[in-house]
Structure formats: C-alpha cells, structure tokens
Amino acid sequence: MPKIYKKIIKNxxxxxxxxxxxxxxxxxxxxxxxxxxxxxxxxxxxxLLAEKEKEVIKKxxxxxxxxxxxxxxxxxxxxxxxxxxxxxxxxxLSDFKKDQLWTRYAVQxxxxxxxIEGSKLNQAEVNAIxxxxxxxxxxxxxxxxxxxxxILAFNLVRNNKFILNxxxxxxxxxxxxxxxxxxxxxKKVNIIVNNKTTTPAGQVxxxxxxxxxxWHENKKSGCHPLSLAxxxxxxxxxxxxxxxxxxxxxxxxxxxxxxxxxxxxxxxLYQNRRLYFxxxxxxxxxxxxxxxWYCIRxxxxxxxxxxxxxx
Length: 311
Description:
Order of helices and strands: EEEHHHHHHEEHHHHH
Shape: globular
Largest sheet: 3 strands, antiparallel
Helix content: 55-70%
C-alpha cells in the first residue's frame, strides 16, 4: 500500500506519495510529489499514482505475471486497470466509509451465495439480518440462522489471522452450518452432483491435502491471483469435501485467496448460476478455458460494482 514519505532537503520538508511494485523479485519505486506540507486530501495524487502503477505493470506484465492462454497480457491488463482504480479509490475512503462498503458487499455476497444454494430470502431480508434489524416473523428461522452463520464465516475469512489448512476449513464449515442439522467434518458418504461423481468419502482428506499442497506451491508462481483462486475453487468443488455447504465455503475461500494478494473480492450472482455451474462442469472435464473466461467476466463486473458502491 502507498505510504507518505518526507524528505528533508536543505532543512526543508518535501512530501511524496510512494508505492513499490515487485518485479522479478525486486521492487520498483514510483512516487508523486505532494508538496511541502502533508495534504489532507490525496484524491488527485492517488489518481496520478494509479496511472503510474498501470504504466509500470503494462511495461512489465510478463515479468510480474506468468502469462497463460486465457490470462494473457491483454486480459491481465484489463483486470489490473480495474483493480488499481479500486485500490486507489478505496484508499481515499475514511475508515467509517470503508466499513460501510464492506457491510454492503457482505450483504450482497451472502444474499447471492446463499441464493445460489437455494435460499429464498430476498436482499432486503438479508440486509436486515446482517444489520440486526427487525425482520418479518414469517421468515423461516432456519433461513435466518443460515444468514447469521454466513456473517460469522464471512468475518472469519476477512480476518487477517485466518490461516488456510484442513483444520481451519473444517472449522469454517462447522461455523457455516451450525444449528442447521447438517453433518460436520468431511463427508462420510459418496455424493453425486449434477450427475457427476465427486471424490469418494474415503479419499477426501488425501485430496484436500493435495489441493492445499498445490496452493502453497503455486501461490508464488506468478500466476495471476484470479487464475490461482479460480483453479483452487474448481478443484475444491470437484472434491466436494462436505455433505452440504461446499459452494458457500468454496466462494468464501475464493475471496480469502484474492484478499491474500490485496485484491478486491469476487461476486458470483444467483441470476447467472447456470452459467457458473456449466463453466465449473466443463473445467471438471479438463476444459478450463470457459471457466477462466467466466471468472474474468465476473471479476470485472464485481470490481465495477464495488466502484459504483463507493460513495
């Protein structure tokens, strides 16, 4: 994240807004001059620094990222341009407005993610539950409990102390399904999803270990964070480690991975659930291109939504 540095030249202070960009293991410094006083509002300077960072990434995209067929230089720059618009506008918000924005995103994320899995609550009802407001007595207690659990799970992965391993994933699942009559821990029965066999129950722990090993081996590989998170999500869903709640856990972990790289979160929409499941299904069959294209489109729309929500 950018920092303000003060230089003393001939006993006079000069302030600069400075960011460092990692390229081939070395940091390149970019900066914008702020003046002889530390300014209260950095909106204009943030925009200038954002443009400088875009230029550096464009010139060094093949050194910063490992290019792939779909995640090529052109697609990566489109994503990075949006990400940097978000990064510098978000930096300009007060802590209060940042909290408000995260709350709006949490409401939208929980509404969409739970709706994909069959929840009948509308967005207003989810909003009321998240904000602890009065809700209609006709709303099913189970649906309310699902949302309350989802809030706790969302906050857990947003916490910088969350560490990814089998134990924490199992505990995240316990938190998500608490009091819903769903078995916790890895599945004890074989499960078929959309006419496809998922990982047999007796092999889940081994496959989850392989998946987590893959994550730790690849997180510093130079793959674009969206590509990395997308591949993890697809592999997690194909394992289907739990009897229920796999989709919601998978989408939470998707965002956790993006946050590890200080990237904005993704938002999968209920209205596009068929496209989402179809793209995942094709990736399960070894055809990842459609899944990657889908994630790129969704992520671009997600960042635009976040930018629109900045007030």
